[in-house]
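Lesson 9: reading folded outputs for more than one chain in a single document. The general rule is that every protein is listed as its sequence immediately followed by its structure tokens, and records are never interleaved. Here is the first one.
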Amino acid sequence: MTGSFEELIGSDEPVLIDFSAEWCKPCKKISSMLNQLVDELEEDLLVVKIDVDKNVALKKKFKLEAVPTLMLFQNGKLLWRHTGLISAPEVKNALRKVM
């Protein structure tokens, strides 16, 4: 990932941030589900995985108290946020509502 986080989320293209941690088993499930989901979605969507243990400033900025946390941004605005396990159909429905 090049550029700043603000540039990334400021994009016209929707950006789904997967805040996770290496030690988190549910994060691994979410990550593989998101990979499949991106292939299925027809919309342009960028998915970026960010390790909260390596990015403490972002963890503090967004008050991330648990992982996995998914956050969808577009044009610098937070459109959707979810913490904890979630199914692929639930993510699809949430993305379709806000995109």
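And here is the second record, again sequence then tokens.
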Amino acid sequence: MTTSTVGLLAGLLLAIAVAAGGFTGLLIAIILGTAGYLIGAHRDGEIDLAAVVRGRGRG
């Protein structure tokens, strides 16, 4: 199991703890799950979040 998968599961579990219902709960679960996956993928070296945040730059 990769770190990104663990991050996804951790984010989803946190979302379940935070969101106990409704459409808002679903949105929170999706946001936290995505954040957990991105952080885990960054730690695994699958993606470079700094390059994504920085963008193309000027010049």
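What the second record shows: The CA atoms of residues 11 and 33 lie 4 Å apart.
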